[in-house]
Amino acid sequence: MKILAFDTSTEYCSAALSVDEQIFQTETLAGRRHSELLLPMVQELLTDAGLKLANLDGLAFGAGPGSFTGLRIACGVAQGLAFATGLPVIGISTLEAIAQQDAHDKIIVAMDARMGEIYHAAFIREAGRWRTVSKPVLCQPQLAPELSGSHWIGCGSGFDIYNQVLSECYGQQLLQIQHGRYPHAREIAALASLRDNGDFHTDPALAMPVYIRNKVALKESER
Does residue 220 carry a pLDDT above 70? Predict the structure, then answer.
């Protein structure tokens, strides 16, 4: 399969092209320039691979959680390209994309959600695919969901920022913490290539961001 993937859920902007299990990728620290940089990056990947959008089998994007604006940019570009080409599209969890970066089979992912909170999920790899054992939630790091068993690997920006708190939460259950992990299009492309055709949306409008948090900020009366 030939899948074009991209992610704009963090301050990084990345794009990847999966062609018959080979992945071409590009990335830049975008700040707030994702909408300006993403399409030129996509075009560069296609040109270097000698492909056009019409040659692809599907599109994939980092669906979230992450930056609200970033998620809307990635989803909007995916929907626009899908409407223009008729290609099926799929949103991939950014938390699962972080888990995909590790060779270990038991992963706890915690992403910084700002406002003193984290996006949290836990996955176990079975037969090459991730099974969610703790669904994605928004919580304070000290209230991270309990997990059974040991030999877990912790990763994601939440572990970078709340390392001590999360280490205390999971104690001896943690085998190791991997720092500096964030979502990247290469893992989104790899995960999309493992999905069944029925997991892709032929109607681009059905491919939507996954915010988890419903509000960006609280009103004064809600604090």
Answer: no
Distance CA 123, CA 137 (A): 13
> Which contacts qualify for 125-128: CB closer than 8 Å, 24 or more apart?
128/194
As a whole number of angstroms, the distance between CA 124 and CA 132 comes to: 7
* Distance between CA atoms of residues 63 and 199, nearest Å: 14
Helices of type H across 21-125: 34-49, 68-85, 94-99
Q: What is the pTM of this model?
A: 0.94
Tokens of 164: 């001590």
**Quick check: 200 and 88 in contact, CB under 8 A?**
yes
pLDDT tens digits along 115-137: 999 999 999 999 999 999 999 99
Query: 101-123: buried (b, 16+ CB within 10 Å) or exposed (e) per residue?
Result: bbeeebbbbbbbbeeebbbbbbb
User: Rounded distance, CA 85 to CA 78, Å?
Assistant: 11
User: DSSP label at 127?
Assistant: T
**55-103: per-residue pLDDT in tens?**
999 999 999 999 999 999 999 999 999 999 999 999 999 999 999 999 9
